[in-house]
Amino acid sequence: AGNSKSSKSTAVPPGPPVYLDLVYIPNHSNSKNVDVEFFKRVRSSYYVVSGNDAAAEEPSRAVLDSLLEGKAQWDSNMQVTLIPTHDSEVMREWYQDTHEKQQDLNIMVLASSSTVVMQDESFPACKIEL
């Protein structure tokens, strides 16, 4: 009974890939719930990356790196668009540090240049056409 393999659990159990058009990366892109296995299994044309809390390490650099590692194991080079909901230091550094690898893997990061105004509040937005 004491001979268990590994104490590390993955967020998504191994299995065949699932293809989707749009995926919101859960839990503000925190690495507790999203790992390389997630991106190996959950394959999408668009990933929405939330998180704007540096103290909580959101979005997580580990999650962004997991996207690169997971996508590198896909059997096709379909284009993937990464859509951050906030401008963050983590996202900017990751983008600059891994830009060449993003290009090799056909990953595009979509910067938001639009603003939506609702009542007395405004916020950045992206238009996504599927």
TrEMBL record:
GO process terms (BP): axonogenesis; dendrite development; microtubule cytoskeleton organization; regulation of microtubule depolymerization
InterPro entries: MAP1
MF GO annotations: actin binding; microtubule binding
Gene Ontology cellular-component terms listed: cytosol; dendrite; microtubule; microtubule associated complex; neuronal cell body; synapse
Protein name (record): MAP1B protein
Organism, as annotated: Setophaga kirtlandii (Kirtland's warbler)
Gene: Map1b_1
